[in-house]
Amino acid sequence: MWFIFLVSCIAVALAALLVIWIGSKVLRSIEKQDKTSDVEDVVYDQVKKKIKEEMEKDE
Questions:
Q1: How far is CA 23 from the centre of its chain?
Q2: Separation CA 17–CA 15 (nearest Å)
Q3: Is the CA virtual torsion 42, 48, 54, 57 positive or negative?
Q4: Three-state secondary-structure class, residue 1
Q5: Among candidates 55, 59, 36, 58, which has minimal Cα distance to 47?
Q6: Which pLDDT score is estimated for 11?
């Protein structure tokens, strides 16, 4: 009886660890995409500013 209880506890613990691990991977992926998006926004703003300056020089 105790053996069945211990095995089921271990199975539930392993399932919980698997869910936590998958959730961690998903959150890391989302954070990585956010960082990439932030960098792209900064670069876009810099390029836009540089183009504006070039256009003003030409006028």
A1: 11
A2: 5
A3: negative
A4: coil
A5: 55
A6: 98
* Amino acid of residue 12: V
Reading the block at residue 47, the tokens are 């390029």
pTM above 0.70, yes or no: no
2-57, pLDDT tens digit by residue? 899 999 999 999 999 999 999 999 999 999 888 888 788 888 888 988 888 888 88
| 5 token code pair | 């209880």
What is the rounded end-to-end Cα distance, in angstroms, of the chain?
88
Q: Which residues of 9-30 are buried (b: 16+ CB within 10 A; e: fewer)?
A: eeeeeeeeeeeeeeeeeeeeee
